[in-house]
Amino acid sequence: MLKRGRFLLRLLLLAGMAAGAARAQAPAASAAAQQAEQLYLAKDFAGAEKAYLTVTQAEPDNAFAWFRVATALQSLGQYEQSLPYLDKAEKAGYPAGAILYRRARVAAKMNDKDKAFDYLNQLATAGFAQVSLLQNDADFAGLKDDPRFAKVIESIEKSAHPCDFGPEYRQFDFWIGEWDVVSTQGQQPVGASSIQLILDKCVILENWTGGGAGAGKSFNIYNSTTKKWEQIWVDSSGGLMKFEGVLNNGTLDYYGDALAPNGAPMKRRLQFFNQGPDKVRQFSQRSTDGGKTWQLDYDFTYLRKKKG
């Protein structure tokens, strides 16, 4: 739930930063609001500021109009004067990310570096992900020589791309690749699998094709909240399995609960043994006595396909 909350917050931040999305949240535009926006887009910021103030008198809950007043003033170099209007925009419900970003710009332009970095750090913590926007914004030019700026960028990068920075996300990378799959005993072909790293290096996707018939996919991800790996398997027969496990001495050890064909509770154990750069063993067992004894499901060996 925490990751989902951060993802939704990031969407709100992005929406608040984009002018088109910001305009979309405005109420049905009155003639006065349309005229004010035309002035703003024409970069007549003095005229836009006055026109949008007129709009706010008629529509005091129009968050977009208050925000436009603030940004028009900032475009005119009236940074301190813009702050009360940012407060009004925030109170009326304008996206918090956009407000924080504008406050950071004001603080930077007023040479209040401590306050600027405080706002930028709040943005990073909230899930702000637009590193290039921050780096290319001329209002932050006076901050770039400060060591704190590089730390903010690093913090944003970690927030935007967590799987690039946590070594635990790379524990299962030994399974990534294109594989021919054989039975461990007898080396008979049983299928093929394409294992891919997707979703900003956070998810390992299995694409399995059986040698006779049938196909399936699994989605594998490290859950930073539980500190465990999780797998969801689905297949062309309508099957679904969920596993949870950890890495032990180079072996990923998954466990899951299922039902036997007769409806009785059953436990599943799925292990992946890293046997070198070009070989992985997948060993599956089941138990119908709560894990006291285990029976073999299958024992496969993945052999990396040779290039060319």
How would you describe this structure to a colleague?
It is elongated, with a radius of gyration of 28 Å. A ten-stranded antiparallel β-barrel has the order 1-2-3-4-5-6-7-8-9-10. With 308 residues, the protein is an alpha+beta fold. The model is unreliable at 1-27 (pLDDT under 50). Strand 5 and strand 6 (240-248) form a beta hairpin. It has ten helices and ten strands.
Entry summary:
By secondary structure, the chain is of the alpha+beta class.
How much of the polypeptide forms β-strand, as a percent range?
Answer: 25-35%
How many helices? The count is 10
Structural category is alpha+beta
C-alpha termini separation: 44 Å
Taking the sheet with the most strands, its summary is: 10 strands, antiparallel, barrel
Based on DSSP secondary structure assignment, what is the total number of beta strands?
A: 10
Structural key phrases:
308 residues; alpha+beta; 10 helices; disordered N terminus
Give the secondary structure arrangement, pairings included.
Elements: H1 2-17, H2 19-24, H3 31-41, H4 45-58, H5 63-75, H6 79-91, H7 96-109, H8 113-126, H9 131-136, H10 147-160, E1 177-183, E2 189-198, E3 203-210, E4 215-223, E5 228-235, E6 240-248, E7 251-259, E8 265-274, E9 279-287, E10 295-304
Antiparallel strand pairs: 1-2, 1-10, 2-3, 3-4, 4-5, 5-6, 6-7, 7-8, 8-9, 9-10
